[in-house]
Write a structure and sequence with these properties.
Helices cover 28% and strands 23% of the residues. It is built from four helices and ten strands; from the N terminus they run ββαββββαβαβββα. The radius of gyration is 18 Å and the shape is globular.
């Protein structure tokens, strides 16, 4: 076989099905076992963090559960990398509404979100609204890019937190995690957990922010 495969399957609460699928290019059996154990430990920790987060930040899996920031903090110019392993930072996207999506390949809900996020991005001009899916995986960005190609996503540009800078500002103990950032680079609201981005209200929320041309945008509230 050209590669070995380690598969783990976890089932948790609603919207918390963890499916981990790692493809490992031929390693010794010992190395494979060590990697599988590491995946198990990471996922177990994530599940515990998610359970605690659900208690403190309850969500129904829709954009209605987004929480407004009491004080809007400017997102610092943290460095992350594109698929060509070229550096980027958040200042590059000033002037646009940004949806930051922090995800990982070992997170089942994350993988469920990505195709819906791809469809959401197709509805909006990238000069006005852009989705930033940033992976916190330990794997090489090239490996992650190859994995993403299998999902057939056409509208998203993917990024990787190679230097692990995100955790200096954003909580990364729970994924997926979604953050809305205004045109001035300040965080408007957040939702840590799975979101059904195919729901009509998701598009409604983004359109609301995109249509606010001047000043500091007011926080979106569901119409019903």
């Amino acid at each position: 076989m050209p590669f070995q495969e380690c598969k783990l399957l976890y089932t948790g609460e609603k919207n918390s099905i963890y499916r981990i699928r790692y493809n490992f290019f031929q390693f010794s059996s010992t190395s494979l076992i060590v990697r599988c154990v590491l995946v198990w430990l990471i996922t177990s920790f994530s599940m515990l963090a998610s359970a605690n987060q659900q208690k403190n930040e309850p969500t129904n899996g829709t954009v209605q559960s987004f929480k407004a920031m009491k004080k809007r903090f400017a997102v610092p110019p943290l460095k992350f990398f594109d698929k060509e392993i070229q550096p980027e930072n958040f200042t590059t996207f000033h002037g646009k509404i940004v949806l930051l999506n922090i995800w990982a390949t070992w997170c089942g809900p994350c993988l469920k979100e990505l195709p819906a996020l791809d469809r959401l991005q197709s509805q909006f001009d990238k000069s006005k609204f852009v989705i930033l899916p940033i992976s916190i995986d330990e794997e090489n960005p090239v490996v992650i890019s190859a994995y993403l190609k299998k999902l057939g996503l056409k509208n998203l540009d993917f990024y990787h937190d190679v230097e692990k800078q995100l955790k200096s500002f954003f909580p990364v103990d729970v994924v997926p995690a979604n953050f809305i950032i205004d045109r001035n680079g300040k965080m408007i609201s957040f939702l840590r957990g799975f979101v059904d981005w195919d729901q009509a209200q998701a598009s409604e929320m983004i359109k609301y922010y995109v249509d606010q041309k001047d000043g500091v945008p007011k926080v979106w509230k569901p119409s019903h």
